[in-house]
Amino acid sequence: MEINDLTPAEQQVWRAFSTGATVDFRDVDGEDTDEYAQWGPERSIRAAVLRALLLNGPRVPGEVAALKVIGARVTGTLDLRHATVDSVVHLSHCRFTHTPDLSGARLPYLNLRDSTLPGLMIARARVDGSVRLTRCRFNGVVHLGGSHISGVLFLERAELYAVPEAEPALKLSHVTIEDDLCAPGLRTHGEIRLDGAAVAGSVELNDARLHHPGNAVLDAQTLVVDGDLLMRRMEATGWIGLRGARIAGRFDLSYSRLSHPDDSALRASSCTIGELWLRKGPPLDGRLNLRRAQVDVLFLEPEVVRHEVHLSNLVYTTLTPHEPAERRLPMLERDAEGYVPHAYEQLATAYRRVGDDHAARLVQLAKQRRLRSTRAWYGRLWGYVQDATVGYGFRPLRAAVWLLSLLALGSTAYALHHPHALKASEAPHFNPVFYTLDLLLPVISFGQEEAFAPDGWYQYLAYALIITGWVLATTVVTGVTRTVSRQ
User: What is the DSSP secondary structure assignment for residue 280, as one 8-state letter?
Assistant: First the structure.
């Protein structure tokens, strides 16, 4: 392309390229309107001219060539598919009439800050520096799937709108980012696809507004983040999917609002997470799915989760903040799978780990009561007996109260009406207290039960004391065995 074939605006850009000078077209026609269709030829540049510059532009010895243009209207398609570009590309505050296509290209740095584009194609590209899309407005799909970015991917306060129904707004599938994905304040109307992506730094989506009602707003299956995944103060209308993701640091959803009614708002099954923070925000409007997840620190405030949950095989080391068991148990009762014994065991273990044995016993008692509701009528009947007598062994003081009460009853009854001796010449002196103890305690013998035999209703009282003693003994032994096995 010859310089004589260029418009005055294009000639200005052409001459500045060889030295890396910046060409700023803002206010060139008196005002900087937001509607690029009103921008005249004074600030219009053909995409073909930019392509020619980047691939075969003039060079000056001792200078670093770079394309630095601000406030231009770029017409036509900037086609750099599979091209190798040696120069920095800086096209900020620009308006593109067609979607740039940089698929498979290799670039040192790309900056489209504050620009408006109908879309962007950078699939399977290699960028040796950063990609800056700060405050860009996209009216179509942004596709970076399979790309490798050595620096930071900036999407702060970017806006993605008017995306076709079947297409995701932002495609980052299998992207590799060797630094951070920085997107605070991001606005999307459609799906963000991050499945299979790998981020060596952190992913920041603080203050983002993601809108895709009834569908996925963020699909990040098998995402790998070596740092943190930050979503503080985020609003998401649609579900977030992180199945199989690995987040080494903190996954922070503090102060966030997640809404996906009648289904899971957060799907994080089979995840491995350093810290998961669900706190200080409104209740999740939808289910919480943490099945088979492994979390080192689970920061979960009970009031944040008020709908159904999926907690089967969830494993966590530390549960914070420390709350009474009565505030944690209702969430376990809302498990969509019904009775999940592992969820109760995990909660009890977390309480024992911090030394709150009382709360751990309450959780174990709640587990037994929930198990009782799943059994046949005779199993439930036996469960009610164990619960009323000794609280399934987790309330041993009840056994002492029952034993003392029955001891008092039996001692009084047999003191008023002595049973007759089987062999008067060999019988020991009758003692109503030890006789009642002989009836109540199935193992210990004081020689009274074998020597005396009551009659009438006193005999039936003896039978009742024997049966009750066996029930109490069985439940106490069961509770002691359970406690010892946990230790």
Answer: S
Whole-angstrom distance, CA of residue 348 vs CA of residue 329: 10
What is the per-residue pLDDT across 243-256, written as a single tens digit (0 to 9) for each? 999 999 999 999 99
pLDDT, tens digit (0-9, with 9 covering 90-100), for 285-329: 999 999 999 999 999 999 999 899 999 999 999 999 999 999 999
Task: Give dist(CA 77, CA 75) in Å, integer.
Answer: 7
The C-alpha atoms of residue 117 and residue 102 are separated, in whole angstroms, by: 14
- Helix, strand or coil, per DSSP, at residue 259: strand
Strands 110-111, 22-24: parallel, antiparallel or unpaired by DSSP? unpaired
Contact 230, 250 (CB under 8 A): yes
d(CA 39, CA 4) in angstroms, rounded, equals 23
* Nearest-angstrom CA–CA distance, 441 and 426: 23
The residue written with tokens 């911090």 in the block is 354
Amino acid at 48: A
H/E element, 367? helix 357-372
Q: Which two tokens stand for residue 86?
A: 């040696």
User: Most confidently modeled of 72-76, 355-359, 434-438?
Assistant: 72-76
- Note whether 11 and 44 are within 8 A (CB): no
